[in-house]
Amino acid sequence: MANENENLTVRERQAIQTRKNLLDAGKAIFLENGFQKATISQMIKRAHTGYGTAYVYFKNKDDLLIVLMEEVMEKFYQVAEQSFEPKSKGEAQEQISEQVRLFLMLAVEEKAMMNVIKEAIGVSQEVEQRWNLIRERFIERISVDVRYSQKKGLANPTFNPVLVARGWFYANEMFMWDCVKGDNLFSIDDVIMNLTQLYVDGLY
Amino acid sequence: MANENENLTVRERQAIQTRKNLLDAGKAIFLENGFQKATISQMIKRAHTGYGTAYVYFKNKDDLLIVLMEEVMEKFYQVAEQSFEPKSKGEAQEQISEQVRLFLMLAVEEKAMMNVIKEAIGVSQEVEQRWNLIRERFIERISVDVRYSQKKGLANPTFNPVLVARGWFYANEMFMWDCVKGDNLFSIDDVIMNLTQLYVDGLY
Amino acid sequence: MANENENLTVRERQAIQTRKNLLDAGKAIFLENGFQKATISQMIKRAHTGYGTAYVYFKNKDDLLIVLMEEVMEKFYQVAEQSFEPKSKGEAQEQISEQVRLFLMLAVEEKAMMNVIKEAIGVSQEVEQRWNLIRERFIERISVDVRYSQKKGLANPTFNPVLVARGWFYANEMFMWDCVKGDNLFSIDDVIMNLTQLYVDGLY
Amino acid sequence: MANENENLTVRERQAIQTRKNLLDAGKAIFLENGFQKATISQMIKRAHTGYGTAYVYFKNKDDLLIVLMEEVMEKFYQVAEQSFEPKSKGEAQEQISEQVRLFLMLAVEEKAMMNVIKEAIGVSQEVEQRWNLIRERFIERISVDVRYSQKKGLANPTFNPVLVARGWFYANEMFMWDCVKGDNLFSIDDVIMNLTQLYVDGLY
DNA sequence: CATGAATGAGAATTCATTCAT
DNA sequence: CATGAATGAATTCTCATTCAT
């Protein structure tokens, strides 16, 4: 506990704090202005650091957002990582349904940040690449679940798990962006029900 | 003499030609440099017109791309507009499969232009909005097909046609961007087969 | 018809004027602040043009200075281009002496600008290259004179005209920079006398 | 000799080593990147020292280069300091010729470093001043030689030794920079021969 | 002796767009 | 219908140097 800090010199602790200040300030500025309009100037001003300091810790604006993005996505990973060991089609549907709900809810909770991220994905090569990595991680996890269900004789074994996982995630991701955008044309529950049912009916 | 009419006609013809030159030059420049790096300068230079001329025909760079985009999407609309009146689940699967194939093939054919469009969607509000409109048009058309199948007793009537159509299109669209990106991890045929089967098995 | 031409000419005339304004302003700013400290901002401000305008006419600060430099060097070229057709060693010494005098006088006259140029040569690759070109032009001209004297039997024919011309110009150039620098340790007349005598005694 | 080090405390020895590391690293970095692109960062990294350490030993980047420059110039001084006591014009020409050869050869040997120095002279006031000092030292030495020859009745006594020495060194210096630049348009031997002959024929 | 976190000045530059001709 | 000279906003990112530890 206290040991952790004892291992660090005063200098190191200050450095960590400075980085954190920058991250916090960056997040606030991004949320206020969006990705493109946000400037490093604003951030260092709010973090009470010097101009060069930001560049000690982050290569540039994109880089800072990526760190923030990973932080947010951490929560999503936890949802994706949930154990999935259904014993029947019914159980599968229930669990998948629940996972989709958590996924969308999380997105809605982090709505503001997700919108910044979406903007950044379109604008910054680097951020887009990072998002693709994140996506692949989700798809990979879903593939495992599909394979599990196939092995257990619950899911149609003729499907290619990777392609199914990919298609399934794509639909979810796009609905997620819809939810985040805010002009909610549909109830989230309707989306979940229809989406899951179609998937489960098709796959299982 | 019919001089006046002929003069007007000549003028009109010149105008049409100028517009076409601009469009052709614009397309070439977009394909060479991508959306952001492309400049109006380059375009008017290649079209052998003056700076201001481009603005006679197009509101701005985004506007020019949108015209180009609509031109390309016209072909896609034709695929979407194909009659869909299956008499059995088998026929449905066959027809949907074929439609997906045409959709993806078209995208691959127009690969270069689709990549420019993708870039522009991320960067330009206007283009993004236009793309959303295009997307809605596709989804609308699919909804009609779903409803038809439900009415005919082929498709599960408990599904919300709009949500199903949307989810289905989202998956297709994302795979389309994958195909267009070029690092083809999967065979298009595998994608089509798995995607269609899952959809048809789930819906019908 | 004539009107159209006049309109075009008006435009062109304005453009030429704008360019001239920029050049004049640029020169003034360079003289006031030196090469490195001078900024395009200051120049456009003094020329009463917009920021972008400067970049319509000049690629960058270096480019603008090069134009100014060529303007100044034009006067030097005229000295170098003077006819040189001595009939005796005495005449040669007299003419060379006179040329060196004009060369150094000119440099002293344009002292301020020459100092800017010297600074720029050290700092900007482009300017340095341009200066090398200018130098070669002088050396080339001197070579011609040396060859003339050799042909006339006045100068020692065993010397390589190009190398002699180069060495001779180098010494002159360096003394020129000394004169321009201002801490005149020597009288210009002494420099001319000694330099020319050594050269003429050696070569003729 | 080894005593010198034995007299030093561990601390002092470490300090000397650190300084040497910095100097070596600095030289390597300068040679790799040129003067302007070289950064202190790179140097301290390669020398395995901390940021501040470099500033314990050197006032700044220019200062470090000056130390390196003096080291290189030391060899040149030795050439300049060679005894010069010719008994005839022939001997003078021979000795001067040899000195020029050594001078140019040395420059070519240290080509890489000389190029860095040239860049630095143009960019840094401090380095330029130091170079001027070095130059004066050479000129001073040559003046002594000229005076010696005049006293011995070998050289024309009407010449101002200081001005002759200066002109002579200027020509040599400039040819030296040419040799160092690398696009060798002339054979070094031709340069030496022509240059020396002109000088000796003129002066003696 | 050694360190390294923090600093901050500041000039260049682009290109879509306008509007007078 | 066509032109093209003029505009100008606004952020980036570097790196030598300092000084508290």
UniProtKB/TrEMBL annotation, chains A, B, C, D:
Record-linked SUPFAM superfamilies: Homeodomain-like (SSF46689), Tetracyclin repressor-like, C-terminal domain (SSF48498)
InterPro entries according to UniProt: Homeodomain-like_sf, HTH-type_Tx_Regulator, HTH_TetR, Tet_transcr_reg_TetR-rel_C_sf
A Pfam family hit: TetR_N
Residue ranges flagged as DNA-binding region: 39-58
Alphabetically ordered keywords of this record: DNA-binding, Repressor
Domain of life from the UniProt record: Bacteria
Residues spanning the signal sequence: none
Protein name in the entry: TetR/AcrR family transcriptional regulator
Organism of derivation: Halalkalibacter alkalisediminis
